[in-house]
Amino acid sequence: MGPMTAMRWRRTWRLPTLPGAENDLNAITTHTGRPTDQFLLGARMFIPLAISVGAYGLVWGVLARQSGLSPAEVALMSTLVFAGASQFVALEMWDPQALPVGAIVFATLIINLRLMLMSATLRPVFKRLKPWRAALATHFITDESWAMTMAEMARGRGSLAYLLGAGSLCFIAWLAAALAGHLLGSAIDDPARYGLDFAFTATFLALLLGMSKGKADIVPWLVAALAAIATARLVPGNWHVIVGGLAGSLVGAVIETRRERPDVA
Question: In whole angstroms, what is the distance from residue 61 CA to residue 179 CA?
Fold first, then answer.
């Protein structure tokens, strides 16, 4: 591709958007750059995380094959659910002979309640979107894309296009890896042998450290961890995810309020 061709390509290529959504995207990204640039920036910044997402997506695909899911079922679940933690839990409950649909749906709901809290913190990038467009865009909110967008917002940047860029690459990496894992399932019988089982943990450790603001985060993190561990030991199911998140968020909010308003007891 010659220089002139590249320049024409850059001028003519545009970020694909929902019908009528271009003005919405422009309205919330004028202070951070063009939507196309923001989309590509989000995708580019997500590349290191995409490798890790692909690693545990591969593990999920292997386990899905062992649980009896077909390639079509793997593709549908990864596309429609697109939530790694709940998909792993669904596999643990998967029984083709007597599929517990109600239990799987309820467990998925409980685990993904955290996404409701995460979506609320991204309200500034959704506030000018129509509700149905915002609902579609939230499908691309993952733990990783949320953390990246929040970090950009903390720097005075962040946009819907950036979120969609990161979320789109996350979706592609997850879906491709899940299908690849299903195809390679017969060759990779034990993901732990290759260290792939640690990819999920490594990703969240990297996100946690990347979002750290210093000593002020230690107490909320510690409270969240202790609450989650205690709940996991005392309460069956996956309530520890919600309890830990709520406990840490509450403590963090109290600390932040006291810092901004010393008169509050």
Answer: 6
Helix 35-66 with 71-80: angle, nearest 10 deg: 140
Beta-strand ranges (E) seen in the chain are none
Spatial distance between the Cα atoms of 74 and 170, rounded to a whole number of angstroms: 16
Q: How confident is the model at residue 170 (pLDDT cuts 50, 70, 90)?
A: very high
Model's pTM, two decimal places?
A: 0.66
Helix 160-183 crosses helix 143-154 at what angle (to 10 degrees)? 160
Distant-in-sequence, close-in-space partners of 183: CB < 8 Å, separation ≥ 6: 61, 71
Burial of 113 (0-12, 13-18, 19+ CB in 10 A): middle
Q: How far apart are CA 75 and CA 162, in angstroms?
A: 25
Tokens 């003519």 map to which residue?
12
Q: Above 90 in pLDDT, residue 172?
A: yes
Structural tokens at position 147: 């953390």
pLDDT over threshold 60, residue 104: yes
The pLDDT assigned to 262 comes to 61
Count the helix, strand and coil residues of the chain and give each as a percent rounded to the nearest 5: 75, 0, 25
Q: By C-alpha distance, which of 81, 90, 82, 102 is closest to 63?
A: 90
Given a cut of 80, whether residue 24 has pLDDT beyond it is: no
